[in-house]
Amino acid sequence: NLALAAAPIEVGPLLREDLFARLNTSILTSATLTTRTGFEYLRARLGLEPLALEEGGHSFEMEEAVVASPFDFETQALLAVPTDLGSPQEPGDGFQEATAKLALDVAQMTGGGLFVLFTSHRALRRVAELIREGEGGGERFPLFVQGEGTRGRLLQGFVESGRGILLGTSSFWEGVDVPGNPLRGLLIQKLPFQVPTEPIVAARMEAMQARGEDPFWRYSLPEAALRLKQGFGRLIRTQEDRGVVLVLDNRIRALLWTCDDGAVVLDRIYP
């Protein structure tokens, strides 16, 4: 069988003409709408940039507001970036081995209660194998691996165990709520950049290049920043939560130095 699929490179014009222009009022809310503490990137994706509105003959009245977080991240969370790990871009199994070892080391310190978030199913499966092979990895800390059960059952088992290690990819970066003591640590293996060779991603980047824009700064990096905030948000869900976040991707160190003191990458979720 042959299937032909099509998708718009830019959804902004469609949303502007077929949704926002037909409604009296629209309210958009989320914990991850801003980059650089502003809405410029979101406006561009939604087709609501001032120039686009002017060219389309629209006179939308827009109000924007950033509501301060109710959480005190400086006292509730510790953000750490290991400096002695290899690069995630290096060939071989070294980075997966380092991830598995660090996951077990952190679990030893926290007594489990650990999420490990991946951007690749292949990396997730390999780290799961290495943890199970590690000393006490599959015995002291129950292991819950995406693909070995439904998301609901994995989360339920993780919460009930109180000392588990859960390995997850895309669907665990958002929409997962584990408040309180069951979740005490979060490992983010790699910065969540989209794969540039995926057809839609590649087409969007080519379109931006044709307009003379830099697709990394205008698209890839803001998308990764929003995704990183979503992942970070799995840890602190209430004002009583405490925990540690480890970002294992050493590329974040360069970005923190070059991107407005990290505002683009972390968007001030943890200054």
* DSSP, total strands: 6
Spatial order of the strands in the main sheet? 1-6-5-2-4-3
Work out the radius of gyration: 20 Å
Query: Biggest β-sheet, characterized?
Result: 6 strands, parallel
Q: State the shape.
A: globular
- End-to-end CA span: 52 Å
Low-confidence stretches: 257-271
Helix run count: 11
Roughly what is the average pLDDT, rounded to an integer?
A: 86
The helix content, as a percent range, equals: 25-40%
List SSEs in N-to-C order.
HHHHEHEHEHEEHHEHH
Task: Find the structural class using helix and strand composition.
Answer: alpha/beta
What does this entry look like structurally?
By secondary structure, the protein is an alpha/beta fold. It is 39% helix and 9% strand. The protein has eleven helices and six strands. The chain has a six-stranded parallel β-sheet, sandwiched between helices. It is globular. The protein starts with 11 loop residues before the first helix and ends in a 5-residue tail after the last helix. Residues 257-271 have low confidence and may be disordered.
Short synopsis of the structure:
With 271 residues, the protein is of the alpha/beta class.
What descriptive keywords fit this protein?
globular; 9% strand; 271 residues; disordered C terminus
Topology, element by element:
Elements: H1 12-18, H2 40-46, H3 50-55, H4 73-76, E1 77-80, H5 94-110, E2 114-117, H6 121-133, E3 143-145, H7 151-161, E4 165-168, E5 185-188, H8 199-210, H9 215-232, E6 243-247, H10 251-258, H11 263-266
Parallel strand pairs: 1-6, 2-4, 2-5, 3-4, 5-6
Helix pairs in contact: 1-2, 5-6, 8-9
